[in-house]
Design a protein that fits this description.
By secondary structure, this protein is an alpha+beta fold. It contains seven helices and 19 strands. Helix 4 runs parallel beside helix 5 and helix 4 packs parallel to helix 6.
Amino acid sequence: MVDEWTVLPGDEALRRAGANAAVVEAGPVTYARGDAAFVLIVDAGDRPGGSMVDSRTGIELSGPFPGPVPDWLHRFDLPWLGFARLPEGCVPLGEVHSRGGIRYDLVLEQPLSFAVLDRIRPAAVQPVPDVDWLTDLPRCRTAALRRFLTGWYADVPEQEAEPVRSAVPLPEPLLAFYELAARRPVIYGTHNRVDPPGALYYDDWGRVPFAAENQSVWGRSFDPGEDDPRVWGDGLPDRERLSGFLLQFALTEAVFEAPYAGHAELSEEQRDRFVRKLTPVPLAPAPIPEEPTRIFVAPGLVAITFPFEGTQLSIASRQRAALREFRDPGFTWDAFNG
């Protein structure tokens, strides 16, 4: 673990590339390739979606990649050395390895301590959405859905929305969902999807398909003609009616799309100990992503646990600081960028 605070002059970091080094500046990243190493120097700071030290174990690189950099990123004949650049100099991050992708995902050979990470990538303290919407659940799941989605996506700018139009009469919970999604389309889902109102139709059983998994593993339809209709999947009814299913969908999708998250496979005992810090959502176990999925919340945070080749736990937030207290949960995160 990199837990010592060492600062080198910027020219010393570049010298680690060796003789005959070519240097390319690309926004917050300096790339240098010489006879000895491929050096990457990343500006300190928190830049979601951009190039940055993203976690204790990784660096994210985002284009454009000018000049010879794309070629350098596909060559592995030299060691790759990472540095973080601060005003006082460059902090060595050790060797890094590429996992590739559209945005390059680099893995640090030695994880950083949180003390080092906080100086390289300080997390801003931000307001987080509360969980007051839970008080609406006993009387109106649709009201809870509205309040959750409005609070969770408050940082997403609203866009001008057209009136909701559908050839199929819309039950009140789905109309409420569509009205919010029209202003913030992320609400339709970035992993799984609720179909837009113009795509609704009656199937051969007289039901209305309205949601599906991203690889069509599951789909959901509802019985038309009811204020809060029954939801069907694989020929069987879900435990929750449409208003409850849409809230389950919104909560699980919030985990999948959030920029800040943690995931671990753990024992049932570890899971139970962890979720004691959270508030269970008083809905039936969700059928997505796996049956049964349990959902928990805290201010600015949603967590889901589900069985899949063991016991899985995922937590997520749209504010990085909301995950800070869960950095050391008594088990090792498989991935964590809080």
